[in-house]
Amino acid sequence: MSEDRPGLLDGAIWPAENPKLFGHEDAEAFLSQSYRSGKGHHAVLIEGPEGIGKATLAFRFANYVLSHPDPGTAPEIIPDPDPNSPVSRQISSGASHNLLHLARPVDEKTGKVKSAITVDEVRRAGKFFSQTSGTGNWRIVIIDPADDMNRNAANAILKILEEPPKRALFLVLSHAPGKLLPTIRSRCLPLKLSPLGEGDLAAALGNLGAAADDESLLAAAKGSVGEALKLMNYGGGEIINAYQDVLSAQGPAARRAMHRLADALSGKESDTIFEFFVSHVGEDLMDRARQAARAGDIAGAERMARLQSDVNERLTVSGAYNLDRKQTILGILADIKQPGP
Questions:
Q1: 61-92 pLDDT, tens digit each
Q2: Is 15-194 a domain of CATH 3.40.50.300?
Q3: 102: which strand partners?
Q4: For the chain, which residues make up each domain, given as ranges?
Q5: Paired strand residues for 100
């Protein structure tokens, strides 16, 4: 992780500074046409898997709007931002008076990113609108991602969405829109992004200076630049192999494999790879549920779905009470090895 950009993966470009976007031409065309029509929605829900370019698209569109405040004079195609323009410099430095980026804040005591976007962060949006209300400029709020808002924050943002100020635009990012309040979703125009094709993924990695000719890595990344970086720079491939070792081993060998994996995921700087592991386990359990359902094993499918729910609950409790991560991982692996009836 970058020290000056919390949450930024090693090898990545901060979305506000990234001049290139790959694979989402249709989404860009939709946004530009909507804006140029003068009838664009005040809130757009940009949804899709993590790491495919949602934040880059949001900052890119924000740059386009702020650079062309009159929709009638905006170009048909959203151009690459000019890094030397005043608007780009203000956005990339976080100094724009017309753009607010809401994300999980850093805990001043621990120096780590908090687990949620809090209501205090959302209150910044209210202050932002009150301070800029007389300028006549567009005011844009990027919520990145909205999935990270706790309940109080979600209710607070909902109140603003219900009565948005004039010339206000919300770009609401979501990896899992089903987790958002239905009332928030109902007030947003959905814009779904798909995972990148292998050609676009290779081009995006090449733009980062990363080797993009490993076909097995491109396949494992599932269309996500973020996943590819975790595989390349954080040992994601080794974690997947270690997880498979746990699933295939029996007896004392299985217990040793579980402890090796738990140790690797419990290190001091292991937050990124731990999140990668959690995501991989969730996908694995859902894949097994789908396979069971296709085979007509409804009881097996329900068991896998219930197991995934139990794993999520265990992780939520562990995070809320700051429980020992290694013991949490060992408990999860034990449940997966011996699922209930």
A1: 999 999 999 999 999 999 999 999 999 999 99
A2: yes
A3: 143
A4: 15-194, 234-337
A5: 141
